[in-house]
Amino acid sequence: MSNQDHMEKQEFNFTVYTENHVGLLNRIATIFSRRKMNVESLNTSPSEIEGIHRFNIVIIETEEVVHKLAKQIEKQVEVLKVYYHTNKDVIWQEMALYKVPTDIIAEKALVERLLRENGARAVVIRKDYTVFETTGHREETDNLLKVLQSFELIEFVRSARIAIIKDSEGFNRKLREFEKAEPGNETIESRDLNTRNNVFSM
After folding, report:
1. Tell me, what CATH number does 112's domain have?
2. What does the pLDDT profile of the chain (202 residues) look like in tens digits?
3. Which domain holds residue 144?
4. Angle of helix 171-180 relative to helix 183-190, nearest 10 degrees?
5. Residue 83, helix vs strand vs coil
6. Residues whose CB is less than 8 angstroms from the CB of residue 144 and which lie 6 or more positions away in sequence, other chains included
7. Strand 90-101 and strand 121-125: pairing?
8. Residue 180 within a domain
9. Do residues 171 and 165 make contact, with C-beta atoms less than 8 angstroms apart?
């Protein structure tokens, strides 16, 4: 990153690998709330390693601030590894559901065409309403939302972001090493967060 990028706010994706312990989510959220930072998206799910969970957190901040946050998050006992990346370094998607009156859909050929153009599909069809689902980036799900507002949209919901790091060679291997590592070795693994370049490298 250039010095200008380093100082400008943009979207960053945190990838946090953790043990699955009660209360960890609250403690991670507190790290952001204490600094009065708004979390744009937060998702947690199992990872590719049994017993290890993966958090995906999206915030808009400068790279300098994000780097400090990554080190703070990794201080949590249950946290095994923290990475952060800009949007260009991850493959990400969000899912959205739209509920619309079935009679409007049936009568409006234009709506059917718009749904096809936006890659939407019907997941529930009832006499009173139909639910469509689509996945994509925020702009894509927002575009369909704006369109369906004109056709008596009943309800809308969007999921948190899920993301996979593009350059992830060796990621699985590192996680397996964490499972086998002694406590002293975990501290050594964490040291590569002391330099910004190592945070971006795998």
Report:
1. 3.30.70.1150
2. 555 556 799 999 999 988 888 888 899 999 999 999 999 999 999 888 788 889 999 999 999 999 999 999 999 888 988 999 999 999 999 999 999 998 888 777 777 788 888 889 889 989 999 999 999 999 999 999 998 998 899 999 999 999 999 986 655 677 666 556 655 444 333 333 333 333 433 4
3. 91-158
4. 150
5. strand
6. 96, 98, 114, 115, 118, 120, 134
7. unpaired
8. no
9. yes
Helix (H) or strand (E) holding 158: strand 155-158
CA distance 196 to 105: 51
Q: In what order do the strands lie in the sheet with 10-19?
A: 39-46, 52-61, 10-19, 79-86
- Whether residue 120 lies inside any domain: the answer is yes
φ/ψ of 3, rounded to 5, equals -60, -35
Element (H, E) at 175: helix 171-180
Q: What is the DSSP string of 101-151?
A: EHHHHHH-HHHHHHHHHTT-EEEEE-SSEEEEEEEE-HHHHHHHHHHHHTT
Q: Give how many domains the chain has, as a whole number.
A: 1
